[in-house]
Write a structure and sequence with these properties.
By secondary structure, this protein is mostly helical. Helix content is 69%, strand content 0%. It has a domain of 117 residues: Ferritin, CATH 1.20.1260. The longest helix is centred in the first third of the chain and has 31 residues. The relative contact order is 0.18.
């Protein structure tokens, strides 16, 4: 998804990646930043609004997911600026540029509804992160590929935690 920011302007840097490569990476990283901010806020939405017999456990789990996602937002934004780009990290930027589905803010969502909503979004975000690993690698930027790998591992782990609540034992 192309972000809706104006053209990419890069600051001068001595990093040995060509400007066109850095432009592509900055664009991709800003997409990741928008979705990362969006999914963080969606995890907080679930955290604030979950109700039911497993309230306390899920309340803590959703907050743990949000905290883990939030830690990576700053790293992503700093990689953008390290490459000479501008990090578009406001909530409004996230709302305009996130590729994630809107959180289903329906009244009286059940615990399972929150779990499914977060699992779906974590899965979509994880797929994007794996794409980012491939793109950064193809562009010769192992540092950005490593960043994507680190975030991907964390997102997959949190998806596992969420999905464990949805899996039925036989």
């Amino acid at each position: 998804m192309a972000t809706k920011q104006s053209s990419t302007h890069l600051y001068t840097t001595r990093i040995d990646l060509q400007e066109t490569t850095r432009e592509k990476l900055v664009q991709l990283l800003n997409e990741t930043l928008a979705a990362g901010t969006d999914i963080w806020s969606q995890a907080k939405q679930a955290h604030w609004n979950v109700k039911g017999k497993d309230f306390y456990q899920l309340h803590l789990l959703f907050d743990d997911v949000a905290d883990a996602l939030y830690e990576h937002i700053d790293t992503i934004a700093e990689r953008i600026t390290t490459l000479g780009g501008i990090a578009y990290g406001t909530v409004r930027n996230a709302a305009q540029n996130s590729f994630l589905a809107e959180y289903p803010n329906t009244e009286r969502m059940h615990e399972e509804d929150h779990l499914i909503a977060l699992a779906d979004r974590l899965s979509t975000y994880g797929k994007h992160l794996r794409h980012g690993i491939d793109v950064a690698g193809e562009l010769g930027d192992q540092d950005t590929a490593d960043l994507y790998t680190e975030v991907s591992r964390e997102v997959d782990k949190k998806l596992w935690f969420i999905e464990a609540h949805l899996q039925k034992q036989k």
